């Protein structure tokens, strides 16, 4: 595992509580690599610690779910269990649920 991946996982676990989501770009900002949103996505795809490191909470900037290494239905189920409503693969009340980074 790379230092970058560890930083992504540690920050996600510490800064994004259950019931909230963050964007790939938002997580990149939190780790002081604001242009690394694709690298964040790659790190989430390789997350060996799921669900303890909650990569299911990382979504696209438009509120769509984005990818998931496992079946996308698992991502939806985990989010809904935490109180995040998903309709048509998009977060309901996205602007309320997203963790602000600025």
What does this structure look like?
The structure is a single chain. By secondary structure, the protein is mainly alpha-helical. The chain has one domain: Orthogonal Bundle (Arc Repressor Mutant, subunit A). It contains 5 helices and 4 strands. The strands form 2 sheets. Strands 1-2 form a two-stranded parallel sheet. A two-stranded antiparallel sheet has the order 3-4. Strand 3 and strand 4 form a beta hairpin. Helix 2 crosses helix 3. The radius of gyration is 12 Å and the shape is globular. The mean pLDDT is 96.
Which short descriptors sum up this protein?
102 residues, mainly alpha, Arc Repressor Mutant, subunit A, 4 strands, two-stranded antiparallel ribbon
Order of helices and strands: HEHHEHEEH
Number of helices: 5
Structure classification: mainly alpha
Number of strands: 4
C-alpha-based Rg, rounded:
12 Å
For the record, give the distance between the C-alpha atoms at the N and C termini, rounded to a whole number.
28 Å
Biggest sheet layout: 2 strands, parallel
Outline type: globular
CATH class: Mainly Alpha
So, the CATH homologous superfamily? Winged helix-like DNA-binding domain superfamily/Winged helix DNA-binding domain
Instruction: Report the CATH topology name.
Output: Arc Repressor Mutant, subunit A
Kindly estimate the percentage of residues that lie in beta strands according to DSSP.
5-15%
Number of domains: 1
Q: What's the rounded overall pLDDT mean? A: 96
Strand order of the largest sheet: 1-2
Which runs of at least 5 residues are low in confidence (pLDDT < 50)?
none
DSSP helix fraction: 40-55%
């Amino acid at each position: 595992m790379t230092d970058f991946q560890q930083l992504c996982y540690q920050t996600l676990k510490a800064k994004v509580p259950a019931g909230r989501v963050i964007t790939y770009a938002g997580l990149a900002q939190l780790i002081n690599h604001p242009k690394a949103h694709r690298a964040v996505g790659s790190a989430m795809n390789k997350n060996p610690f799921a669900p303890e490191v909650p990569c299911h909470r990382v979504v696209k900037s438009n509120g769509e779910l984005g990818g998931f290494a496992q079946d996308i239905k698992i991502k939806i189920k985990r989010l809904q269990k935490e109180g995040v409503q998903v309709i048509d693969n998009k977060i309901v009340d996205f602007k309320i649920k997203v963790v602000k980074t600025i």
